Amino acid sequence: MLLLEHPTDDSIEIAVSFMREVGAFLTENSPKGTTFVFERFRAVLNEGAISQRVQYMIEVLMQVRKDKFKDNPIMPEGLDLVDEDEQITHQIELEDDLQVQEGLNVFKFDPDYLENEEKYKSIKSEILGEESDEESGSEEESSDEDEDEVAEAKEGIEDRTETNLVNLRRIIYLTIMNALNYEEAVHKLLKVQIDEGQEVCTNSTCYQS
C-alpha cells in the first residue's frame, strides 16, 4: 500500500510485480487485505494518471488474479524441501522497530570452523535428507559420463567427403589471389589454420577447380 499511496509508473510497476509473486499467499492468508489492495489498483487505473503501459500491467494483474495465480504458486515445487512442521518462519511488519545486529556484518574468525561445519552438515542432512546429496552426485556423474561419450564419438568421426579440404583450398586460393604481393600472401597464409594430416598442394590448378 505504501507504493500505491502516491502512484507513479515506477511504484506501480514494482507493486504489480510484487503482487504477482505473493498474490496467491495473500489471497489465502489475508483475503480482505488482498481485496483492499486490488481495489486500490482499480482506483489508480480509473484515475488514468499513469502511462498506458503501466495501466496494461494492472489489467494483466487483474486477469492473473481471476486465474487464481496459477503461474505463481505459493511454494514452487523445487523449493518445497522442508516439511511444514519443521519450518521456522519469522513474520515482521514494515513499520516495526527491528533489532538490528550489526555484529553479524563483521567477519569473525572461527577457530572451530571444521567442527561447526560438520554440525551444520548433520543438521542439514536431518532436515533435507541425505538422499538429495546422493542423487545430485549421481546426476553429476552421469552427466559427466554422457559428455565424455559425446566427445569420444566426435573424435571418432572421419570426414570422407573432403569438404574441409575443399574449403581449405578455396581459402588458400582466395588469399593468394587477393594479396597485393607475395609478402602479404605469405603473411595471410601463416594465419590459415591447417589441421594435422591435411595436405596442401602447390599446384595452382588444385585451387581453380
Please give a structural write-up.
58% of the residues lie in helices and 0% in strands. The protein contains 8 helices and no strands. It has helices spanning 2-5, 9-29, 31-47, 52-66, 113-128, 131-155, 163-178, 182-189. The longest helix has 25 residues, at 131-155. The radius of gyration is 33 Å and the shape is extended. The mean pLDDT is 77.
Descriptive tags:
mainly alpha, single chain, 209 residues
The end-to-end distance, rounded to whole angstroms, is 76 Å
Please report the number of helical segments.
8
What is the CA-based Rg, rounded?
Answer: 33 Å
Shape: extended
Structural class: mainly alpha
Low-confidence segments, given as residue ranges, are none
Number of strands: 0
Kindly estimate the percentage of residues that lie in beta strands according to DSSP. Answer: under 5%
- Compressed to H and E, one letter per element, the order equals HHHHHHHH
Give helix % range. Answer: 55-70%
Mean pLDDT: 77
Main pleated-sheet profile? none
In short:
Helices cover 58% and strands 0% of the residues. The protein is built from eight helices and no strands.
Give the SSE layout.
Layout: H1 2-5, H2 9-29, H3 31-47, H4 52-66, H5 113-128, H6 131-155, H7 163-178, H8 182-189
